Amino acid sequence: MLKIDNLQVSVGDKKVLNGVTLEVSAGEVHAIMGPNGSGKSTLAHVLAGRPGYTVTAGTVLYEGHDLLALPPEARARAGVFLGFQYPVEIPGVNNVYLLKAAVNAARKQRGLPEVDAFDFLGLVREKMQLMQMDDSFLSRGVNEGFSGGEKKRNEILQMLVLEPRLALLDETDSGLDIDAMKVVAQGVNSLRSPERALVLVTHYQRLLDYIVPDRVHVLARGRIVRSGDRTLALELEKRGYDWVTGQAA
Amino acid sequence: MSESSVKLESLLSRGYSQGFVTDIESDTVPPGLDEDVVRLISRKKKEPAFLTEWRLKALRHWLTMSEPRWAHVQFKPIDYQAISYYSAPKARTDGPKSLDEVDPKLLETYEKLGVPLHERARLAGVAVDAVFDSVSVATTFKERLSEAGVIFLPFSQAVQQHPELIEQYLGTVVPHSDNFFAALNSAVFSDGSFVYVPKGVRSPMELSTYFRINALNTGQFERTLIIADSGSYVSYLEGCSAPMRDENQLHAAVVELIALDDAYIKYSTVQNWYPGDAQGRGGIYNFVTKRGECRGRHSRISWTQVETGSAITWKYPSCVLRGAGSIGEFYSVATVNNRQQADTGTKMIHIGADTRSTIVSKGISAGHGQNTYRGLVKVLPSAQGARNFTQCDSLLMGGECGAHTFPYVEVKNPSATVEHEASTSKISDEQLFYCLQRGISQEDAVNMIVSGFCKSVFKELPMEFAVEAQNLLAVSLEGAVG
Questions:
Q1: How far A244 CA lies from chain B's nearest CA (Å)?
Q2: Which of A93, A74, A161, A176 has the alpha carbon at shortest distance from B428?
Q3: Diameter of chain A measured on Cα atoms
Q4: pLDDT tens digits, residue range A43-101?
Q5: Is B51 helix (H, G, I), strand (E, B) or coil?
Q6: Of the candidates B384, B385, B381, B382, which has an alpha carbon nearest to the alpha carbon of residue B412?
């Protein structure tokens, strides 16, 4: 589904990804771990098409197509979803309104009619229940006045409604207490399926207790320095990042 | 200038004015303004003597005044003697004869607004009276209102049918000498609306000037007078669209509102006069005086405006809070794009005790637009316990536009509370990327963010107007980002 080959990225003069190679197949969950500043969030953002990054070398194929050639909205409509680490507030824009616009944009792309407003609200309510969000959410602005935990839940809610084929979750666990993390993990797990792939970007292994990955990769200084199964995450927790980053040096 | 081009020019201009005069000679007056013209207008409208005298008084005062220049707007001096001050609605020989002759871009805009086809034709200035059965619409509408006792008439008819009300209230909020443009309007106003809601009556429907948009095309000097008697309620909507013309047109209207004890007047405007083209050619000079007086105790006047059109908007819908416990409100969205200029805001004059006012102003600037909020909150010594809350937010799109805020506060009573909040923001890259990442196009994302910015004003508009306002905003900001 996703094939990254020797991806090199700069921000201004600074090189932040130094040749990342990674392949993710449908049905798989991959975790990208690494110390702060290792480039793991950059990777997620570059895949989503955030402006401000320059790809200096390498290719990214998504379902066989050149992902980097597409503008961000086209990537999203093709099924690429980014769960933001710090979701932005958009005052006055209703949560459901944004979500409906997002769903309709993807439907339009596929030649489908706009979603029925009543059915849509039913779907959103159902997913809200799963994410343990109360009704007040429906009338509030996008992330407006949300707590950190509420923002993260909202990201997952959007993902559940949009049903992406490739979900990139950037530090979804940061700032969550253990109960909220369980709710978020439950939401993410409900979306796992043989047609979908998930890439979790995380600093800590504790999220992986709840969302069990198929593969774990450690990113350091802009490249993947080690890959393994879920036991790699456990070992990392025990031995710290120095263990792998030291090896890489 | 060569002789031939002089000849050509005079031929062209003669052709134009002759077309006017020969076709409907009795319904037009030649350009220029003096006492004879004012008397002629008054005579054509068969006005009572008091009104003729009032117009003349206004003219004499106007002649002593000079055009104000204090607003943060720029325009070439207007030649007031070159304007024709009276022409009848059906005299429009320069108007398009059918929709085929109307600029397709304008039609496209109406299509985007979801204006029905027959309405589009009317808005575009096509004479389609025969096609559109406006007479019956007006009749059913009038019956329901008259059952409730509400008087809603064109101003000129109200002068004939209810001269006593006109004489009692006209000019009591905006005097004939109020300001340059109000004085000019008082002298030459052609028509407008008159509303009287009797004691204790809640108007059974929202009153709208949309029905009379055709008449608006001719009258650039309308006069509106709304009186809400004790305990009554009325919601009045004003929608403005104008045909595209290359020359600037002056629109100097006056609106007076009077709310007696416990009465509530809600006045909403969606202003979409032609803004001129991208280079700033043409467009309406919208120099309007709007003022309401909360004359009675616990009365309330609420202005809501969405200003997207006009080359220059210069208006300050205001409230004189005379009655004890009365409430004044001003909710405004003003948008400028391309070369548009807006200098708008409000005045809240607190006279009575325990009067309250709320000002929410949202200014959006794009292109080379210049947007100014100018507001006055004045608390007189008599206004014990008066309160005001003002919020002014500006949103900038691109680097060539400007936003300016001039809040004036004069407090003469120490028990008053006056609060002011202001902010200036840009549409952030973060917000845009967030929307794009959800698959929403850049254009839709900008519209969504701007609408969100304006939400606290839009929610004051009646439902169908709020939808129209959002669509208008989207049209007027088209191409502002990206």
A1: 33
A2: A93
A3: 57
A4: 999 999 999 999 999 999 999 999 999 999 999 999 999 999 999 999 889 999 999 99
A5: helix
A6: B381
Nearest partner of B361 among B445, B460, B289, B444, judged by Cα: B460
Please judge whether B433 and A72 are an interchain contact, meaning their C-beta atoms are less than 8 angstroms apart.
Answer: yes
| Rounded Cα gap, residues B169 and B176, in angstroms | 12
Distance (Å, rounded) from C-alpha B117 to C-alpha B8?
Answer: 38
Distances (CA, A) of A172 to A2, A8, A98, A147: 21, 25, 20, 14
**How far does CA A241 lie from the centroid of its chain?**
22
Residue B169: which H helix or E strand, with range?
helix B163-169
Coil, strand, or helix at residue B414? coil
**CA-based nearest residue in chain A for residue B426:** A90
| Closest Cα in chain B to A144 | B452
Question: How many residues in chain B?
Answer: 482
A to B CB pairs, distance under 8 Å:
79
Q: Distance from CA of residue A97 to its chain's centroid?
A: 22
Tens-digit pLDDT profile for residues A210-219: 999 999 999 9
Tell me which chain A residues have a C-beta less than 8 angstroms from the C-beta of B452: 90-93, 141-142
| Chain B environment of A154 (Cβ under 8 Å) | none
Q: Do B448 and A73 touch (CB under 8 A)?
A: no
* Shortest Cα distance, chain A CAs vs residue B432, angstroms: 10
Number of Cβ atoms within 10 Å of the Cβ of B444? 18
Task: Report the C-alpha gap between B347 and A233 in whole angstroms.
Answer: 65
Asked if B259 contacts B195 with a C-beta cutoff of 8 angstroms, the reply is no
The pTM is what?
0.79
Tell me the residues of A at the B interface, defined by beta carbons under 8 Å apart. Answer: 48-51, 71-73, 75-77, 81-82, 84, 87-88, 90-93, 97-99, 101-102, 105-106, 109, 141-142, 158, 162
pLDDT in tens, B375-388: 999 999 999 999 99
Residues of chain B with pLDDT under 50: 1-26, 89-95, 116-118, 122-139, 211-219, 482
Name B161's Cβ contacts closer than 8 Å, sequence gap at least 6: B151, B153
SS3 B3: helix
Q: Chain A residues with CB inside 8 Å of B430's CB?
A: 88
In one letter, which amino acid is B65? M
CA A4, CA A82: separation in Å to the nearest integer? Answer: 17
**In the structure encoding, which two tokens stand for residue B374, read together?**
């100018």
Contacts of B389 (CB under 8 A, 6+ apart): B357, B358, B359, B419
Mutate to test the interface with A, among B437, B450, B455, B470 (most CBs of A within 10 A): B437
CB–CB of B439 and A105 under 8 A? Answer: yes
- Rounded to two decimals, the ipTM of the complex is 0.95
Q: Which pLDDT belongs to residue B102? A: 56
Give per-residue pLDDT as tens, A116-166: 988 999 999 999 999 999 888 888 999 999 988 899 999 999 999 999 999
B 310-339 near A (Cβ less than 8 A): none
Is any Cβ of chain A less than 8 angstroms from the Cβ of B431? yes
Rounded-to-integer distance, Cα A50 and Cα B259, Å? 55
| Burial call A90-120: b when 16+ CB within 10 Å, e when fewer | bbbbbbbbbbbbbbbbbeeeeeeeebeeeeb
Residues B114-169: tens digit of each pLDDT: 554 445 554 444 333 222 223 334 445 667 788 899 998 888 889 999 999 999 99
- Residue of B428, B436, B456 lying closest to A72 (CB–CB): B436
Q: Facing residues of A228 across strands?
A: A216
Tell me if A102 and B438 make a contact (CB, 8 A cut-off): yes
B433 in reach of chain A (CB within 8 A): yes
